[in-house]
Structure formats: structure tokens, C-alpha cells
Amino acid sequence: MKIVKVGEIKSNPINEQIYDLSGIVELAASIDEVGLLQSITENQSHTINSGHRRLEAIKSLGRDEVSVEVIKTRKDTEAALIVHYNKQREKSCQEILNEYRVLQTHSTTSCSPRSPQEARTQLLAQSESQLQQ
Predict the structure, then answer these.
(1) 24: domain CATH number?
(2) What order do you get walking across the sheet with 2-5 strand by strand?
(3) Mapped to the 3 state alphabet, what secondary structure does 29-68 carry?
(4) Are 133 and 106 in contact (CB under 8 A)?
(5) How many domains, the chain?
(6) Which structural domain range is residue 108 located in?
(7) Based on the domain organization, do 91 and 117 belong to the same domain?
(8) CA distance 48 to 112
(9) Looking at the structure, do residues 66 and 113 belong to the same domain, yes or no?
């Protein structure tokens, strides 16, 4: 864990292809009241893997620094990691469809998935094994 300047953290374009940044006002109010309960996760290039909404909330509060966890990532599993980090999130139908499209595009598996669930399962398994390394 380390503290970094908010301006040094870059948004991940893959996340922008999938998810909307909704509920920032409510999240900012929560962070202001009890603090940041889960740190932002970034890769070795200061690009967010998890925490885009948290970063926007921190910015809206006018904070200059934030706690981050740095993890080593590989480009070929980055999309799956982002989806994996958002497993618990309530998603719109469009965001679920976006996940499928992005996972299909970034798939590193040799066999083509037959369904969105199969694609998601394959890539989440890859990203989970990367997180355990």
C-alpha cells in the first residue's frame, strides 16, 4: 500500500468501455463520512484496475492524495481483471453486454466461448490465477 498524488493515477480505457461512473455523489458522501474503506488498485504504469468510481469521488472531495495498492499485471489479462474486480457490482444490462464484448475482444484463450457466461468464466479464471501469483 502506498499514498500517491491523485493526478498521477490514470483511468483505464478498458473500464471506460464497460462501466458507467454512476453514484459518485453518494460514494463521495460515504468516503467523506467514514473514509476510503477499500484502496484503489493500480498496475505498474499507474493505471487503475479497480477503483474508478472511488477515484472520481476522491477528486470531487478535492483530495490531493489517495491510498493505492500496486499490482503487477499483464496486458493480455487486464480486461479480465477489471471484470473480476467488478463481480459484486450491480450492473445494467448494457454493462453486462459491454463486459461480454470486451472479454471477447481481449480473450487469450484458444477456444472460442459459446456464450457470454462461458467467456466470462474463462477469462475470470485466468485473471484469478494471475492474482494468486
Answers:
(1) 3.90.1530
(2) 2-5, 65-70, 40-42, 48-50
(3) HHHHHHCCCCCEEECCCCEEEECHHHHHHHHHCCCCEEEE
(4) no
(5) 2
(6) 75-132
(7) yes
(8) 28
(9) no
Q: How far apart are CA 50 and CA 59, in angstroms?
A: 16
Each of the 133 residues of the chain gets a pLDDT tens digit; together they read 899 999 999 999 999 999 999 899 999 999 999 999 999 999 999 999 999 999 999 999 999 999 999 999 888 888 989 998 988 888 888 988 998 888 888 765 444 445 556 656 666 665 555 555 5
Sign of torsion, CA 91 115 13 41?
positive
The phi and psi torsions of 53 (rounded to 5 degrees) equal: -65, -40
Strand partners, 40: 68
- Contacts (Cβ under 8 Å, ≥6 apart) of 80: 103, 106, 123, 124, 126, 127
